[in-house]
Specification:
By secondary structure, the chain is of the alpha+beta class. The radius of gyration is 16 Å and the shape is globular. Helix 1 runs antiparallel to helix 3. It has a single domain, classed as 2-Layer Sandwich (Alpha-Beta Plaits), CATH 3.30.70. Strands 2-3-1-4 form a four-stranded antiparallel sheet, covered by helices on one side.
């Protein structure tokens, strides 16, 4: 199994969710609020936006999914394709190995 994580801009969540739902093997995801600290700068050495110039943090979402090995590549590619606008700061995506995972269900 693999864990796919991503830190994305707040505007990308709806389109990412739609893209993942259309990808075979999508098991669902955990979404949590996150903040990126530090200033992202473009190739000219200047902040991307006035907000980034005036604050040292930017609101983001953190996405987490535990997926079967055979679905990991397609889901990773779907995340990267959805987030890639060509602008710096689109997000970050990574995959890690999961040694063991259990989906726990309450029994009655």
């Amino acid at each position: 199994m693999k864990e796919i994580k991503a830190v994305i801009g707040t505007r990308a969540l709806a389109s990412l969710h739609a893209s993942l739902r259309a990808t075979p093997g999508f098991p669902g995801m955990t979404v949590s609020k996150a903040e990126r600290y530090g200033r992202a700068v473009g190739g000219d050495g200047l902040p991307h936006t006035i907000r980034e110039e005036l604050t040292d943090h930017v609101a983001r979402f953190r996405i987490e999914m535990v997926v079967p090995d055979e679905a990991a590549g397609a889901l990773y590619d779907a995340v990267v394709a959805c987030l890639s606008s060509g602008a710096p700061g689109d997000g970050v995506v990574w995959i890690t190995d999961v040694e063991r995972a259990s989906f726990v269900h309450k029994t009655r």
